[in-house]
Design goal:
The complex is a heterotrimer.
Chain A: E1 36-47, E2 50-61, E3 65-69, H1 76-82, E4 93-101, E5 104-105, H2 113-119, E6 120-123, H3 135-145, H4 151-164, H5 168-171, H6 184-197, E7 202-206, H7 214-227, E8 232-236, H8 240-246, E9 249-254, E10 257-263, H9 264-269, H10 274-280
Parallel strand pairs in A: 3-8, 3-9, 6-7, 7-8
Antiparallel strand pairs in A: 1-2, 1-4, 4-5, 9-10
Chain B: H1 2-42, H2 48-52, H3 66-96, H4 100-114, H5 118-133, H6 138-163, H7 166-174, H8 179-190, H9 192-207, H10 234-242, H11 247-274
Chain C: H1 8-12, H2 18-57, E1 67-68, E2 73-74, H3 77-108, H4 111-126, H5 129-146, H6 148-156, H7 171-195, H8 199-207, H9 212-241, H10 244-249, H11 267-274, H12 281-318
Antiparallel strand pairs in C: 1-2
Classes of the chains: A alpha/beta, B mainly alpha, C mainly alpha.
């Protein structure tokens, strides 16, 4: 895990030379070979005439936290949504290329996006617990509306999901209260509980803490580190320090293209591409 | 010279302000007048007999409008059976599916339909149902009112559904919940209050309609026993009594009018109550 | 099943059915198409119910002024005249009042008055036609007959419009009561139009030192012209179809007279009054044909109003302050 203090300064003039970083670089041969959760092959996406994702190829490892960073408009959120076919909610989008998940192409013929989304969950920037439902109902809605009826299973999953989102102790006596009565940070953790209740394998997070105060953000980041033991987590963030704190791998996107993808430590201390270096040293973005 | 001009302009402005406030007063005056007379002329005839007795022949004291009050209720129930499902589901389509151009056209048609005079609905249902079954009926009356409700409910439902933030739909779909379940259990549930108020407003609107019932429900001096018989309705009864030459019936017409207006206003007040803490109201 | 879930949750969740989504989509589509079906239904029923009369009387139906059920002579001209004149009177009375009220509500009234006033106007809109008609028969007509009508006759009796005997039930009474019925809708639509005029326009005018009225006239009204015209046409559409209140105060006599004191008859009223009395087929068919005419003109008026209002909306949302 990278120490934020050793990240290069974000002011233009006083950036220390990257090669003077004190973190040792592991030799190539000892790089851990993680099995990929996603194998993305030459993915391109168009919104109408405009191409938002340009020929991205990347293998995202499983059971790790992968951060996607880049300046606004670089396509990182769009890319994230390609991983669970949520971009299809926007009309007139066109996609080319493949996204292999568990060996099969998400965009293959006859694949039902609904099934995919049960295995690949998503957390959004603005927390959105359903307003007409209590805390418990919010957590269980995914299970219930997908046909799970047995009381016992529901109760088990309710407690387990809330525990895993570090919310159980805070709400266990108030499960009947409306979901909206929680604070911002708690609401986001509720959304996380809701997402993991359906037992996905991957959790995609689109700037999950950007609307939260620093304390709540810290809690979310702790949660992300805990969750990656059981789930593959891919998080889009505009906050480089956050990427540095939370993630094992980082991908840098720029203008719809994947510029660099590496272990987080290496990307931040010794980026291979000039654009990456320019971004993380604050020359633009 | 400048000062004079400025003063003149100020005078004009003041006069315009006064004129428009007078106009506002004139606009609201009929409301006060109608209410005043409703209460003054009608309250005397509101008694227990009015609510429990059937109409009596001219000359006999103690006639009531109980069958008309109940009949209106029945007709509204029938109308809702037709208007609510078609209107709500149609509104769902407009809000959740459909391309921009199709929906624009459909909305346009719905708005035009809202402008069709209510008596025309009566004529249409006469041709469809009354001629077919060779009798005036509660069914025909309910159908006429129900058809009127459809474009109303469709538009109000669409409006409320569009107010539900897209984030909820996204979150539900991201959980792997199918589209139709997302719409029904998440979106419609969130908008439920708005949908209900839209229905109540439509009911309040058709509760006072007379014209479509003139030759469908037709009216009935006795109780209606099945849907294929003519049925009494409060607005119809008021009309019949009002244009009659009998004083006693005139009195009862006022009483009936007071009851009808009260019913409608209670419905509207209910709507207001349900939408009290929302920034946007459906008018 | 491809990409089926392999975790424990899969054991409990039901697979999603494409069928459910399809069914729901087509169900809602069918319901939405109901509006189109309804318009066609109305047109078809009216045409079907009147085609005998249409073939028998042809175009002359619209130009003949004899309405004699006994002799089986049916001409719609008196009713077209009645509808036109009563609606015109209603517009002359209601449009200035409504627009002035809308201006008052959006520009000039103190804030505390606005919501209560809007509520009162909504209440007026909620009064059923038959109740207004009831009030019309027993309160408005006697009053008109006692004060305003004799006054008008004295002062303007030399004109053809105010000549002749004063009965009370009259074209003018019909026009007045329609005006009362359409005031709320013209006011509320006008209000919406005025409210959507961007504040930038008002502010610019104020900054130039205009008085309140001048701001309203220059910055708001001229901008909103088309929309207000649309509101008026919407009111016209309502006026054309108004039935019960008019029937109760207009006198229901199929004649064409210049005098506004004379009783008249509208398209909607004749249907309301005589539909159940129609003893012969041709009589009923003639009434259906009147319905068709009424349907036609209200559709036209509403189409025009919608178009005007839509173009105003577009103009307002894309206009840039110069």
């Amino acid at each position: 895990m990278i120490n934020p203090a050793s990240l290069p300064n974000t002011t233009m003039d006083s950036a220390p030379r990257i090669s003077q970083s004190r973190i040792p670089e592991p030799p190539e041969t000892l790089l851990p070979q993680a099995a990929p959760a996603f194998k993305v092959k030459q993915l391109s996406l168009w919104y109408g005439e405009k191409q938002a994702i340009k020929n991205v190829t990347i293998d995202i490892p499983e059971k790790m936290v992968t951060a996607i960073i880049g300046p606004s408009g670089c396509g990182k959120s769009t890319f994230l949504r390609c991983l669970n076919r949520m971009h299809e909610l926007v009309p007139r989008t066109r996609i080319e290329g493949e996204v292999l998940f568990d060996g099969e192409n998400l965009y293959g013929p006859g694949v039902d996006p609904t099934i995919i989304r049960r295995r690949i969950g998503m957390i959004f920037q603005k927390s959105n617990p359903f307003p007409t439902m209590s805390i418990a109902d919010n957590v269980l809605v995914g299970l219930r509306l997908n046909g799970v009826r047995k009381r016992q299973i529901l109760n088990e999953r309710l407690e387990k999901s809330l525990r895993m989102s570090a919310l159980w102790d805070e709400v266990k006596d108030d499960l009947g209260k409306p979901g909206m009565s929680l604070s911002g940070g708690q609401q986001q953790r509720l959304c996380i509980a809701r997402a993991i209740a359906v037992e996905p394998e991957v959790v995609l997070m689109d700037e999950p803490a950007s609307a939260l105060d620093p304390l709540a953000t810290m809690k979310i980041e702790e949660l992300i580190r805990e969750l990656c033991v059981d789930y593959t987590i891919i998080i889009v963030t505009h906050n480089m320090q956050q990427a540095g704190r939370c993630s094992d791998r980082t991908a840098f996107f720029f203008m719809g293209q994947l510029i660099e993808f590496d272990q987080t430590e290496r990307l931040f201390s010794n980026p291979k591409e000039k654009k990456t270096e320019d971004y993380i040293t604050g020359r633009f973005g | 010279m400048r000062g004079d001009q400025h003063t003149w302009r100020k005078i004009k402005s003041g006069a315009a302000s006064t004129a428009s406030s007078v106009a506002a007063l004139v606009v609201v005056a009929p409301l006060a007048l109608v209410f005043y007379h409703l209460v003054v002329s009608g309250i005397g005839s509101i008694n227990w007999a009015f609510f429990t007795n059937l109409p009596k022949p001219v000359g006999e004291v103690g006639g009531g409008m109980v069958n008309a009050i109940v009949g209106s209720g029945e007709l509204l129930g029938l109308a809702a059976l037709i208007g609510v499902p078609v209107g709500v589901l149609g509104g769902v389509y407009l809000a959740e599916y459909g391309g921009a151009r199709t929906n624009s056209l459909l909305r346009f048609v719905a708005d035009v339909l809202n402008g069709v005079p209510s008596i025309i609905w009566g004529v249409v249902v006469y041709g469809l149902v009354v001629l077919r079954f060779k009798s005036f009926s509660a069914l025909a009356g309910g159908l006429a009112l129900g058809l009127m409700m459809i474009p109303l409910i469709m538009r109000t439902t669409e409006e409320v559904l569009l107010l539900v933030p897209g984030g909820y739909r996204e979150a539900a779909l991201a959980l792997g919940i199918s589209r139709w379940k997302t719409i029904v259990h998440i979106v419609m549930k969130t908008a439920l209050k708005g949908i209900v108020t839209g229905i109540l407003l439509a009911l309040a609107r058709v509760a006072g309609e007379t014209a479509p019932l003139l030759f469908t429900a037709f009216g009935n001096r006795f109780w209606n026993h099945n849907l294929h018989e003519p049925i009494a309705a409060l607005p119809l009864q008021i009309f019949t009594y009002a244009i009659s030459p009998y004083d006693d019936w005139h009195r009862q017409a006022w009483a009936g009018a007071l009851v009808l207006v009260t019913m409608i206003f209670v419905l509207n007040a209910l709507v207001r109550f349900l939408t009290r803490d929302r920034a946007v109201r459906i008018l | 099943m491809p990409l089926a879930q392999r975790t424990s949750a899969a054991a409990h969740m039901k697979p999603p059915s494409r069928f459910g989504d399809r069914l729901f989509k087509y169900l809602t589509l069918a319901m939405a198409l109901a509006v189109v079906a309804l318009v066609l239904l109305v047109g078809w029923q009216l045409a079907r119910g009147s085609h005998l009369a249409m073939t028998k009387f042809g175009f002359h139906f619209l130009t003949t002024s004899t309405w004699d059920p006994v002799a089986e002579q049916f001409g719609a001209l008196p009713f077209i005249y009645g509808t036109a004149v009563s609606s015109l009177i209603a517009l002359i009375i209601a449009v200035p009042l409504s627009i002035a009220t809308a201006i008052y509500l959006t520009e000039l009234a103190p804030l505390w008055i606005r919501q209560p006033l809007v509520s009162l106007i909504e209440m007026l809109a909620a009064i059923p036609s038959v109740i207004l008609g009831l009030w019309g028969i027993f309160v408005m007509i006697p009053w008109l007959r006692s004060y305003p009508f004799p006054f008008l006759k004295e002062t303007l009796g030399w004109t053809p419009f105010f000549s002749g005997p004063v009965y009370g039930t009259s074209m003018l009474a019909g026009g007045i009561i329609i005006a009362i019925m359409i005031l709320p809708i013209i006011t509320s639509v006008s209000r919406e139009i005025l409210r959507s005029v961007p504040n930038l326009q008002r502010e610019a005018a104020y900054a130039l030192g205009a008085t309140r009225w001048e701001v309203t006239r220059i910055a708001v009204l001229s901008y909103a012209k088309n929309g207000l015209f649309g509101a008026a046409i919407l009111g016209l559409g309502r006026a054309l179809g108004e039935t019960m209140a008019v029937t109760m105060v207009i006198g229901n006599t199929p004649q064409i007279r210049a005098s506004l004191f004379a009783p008249g008859y509208t398209l909607a009223s004749v249907i309301a009054n005589e539909f159940t009395e129609a003893t012969t087929d041709i009589y009923l068919q003639a009434l259906f044909e009147i319905g068709l005419v009424l349907f036609g003109i209200t559709i036209l008026a509403n189409l025009l109003a919608q178009l005007l209002l839509k173009t105003t909306n577009n103009a307002m949302s894309t206009r840039v302050v110069q």
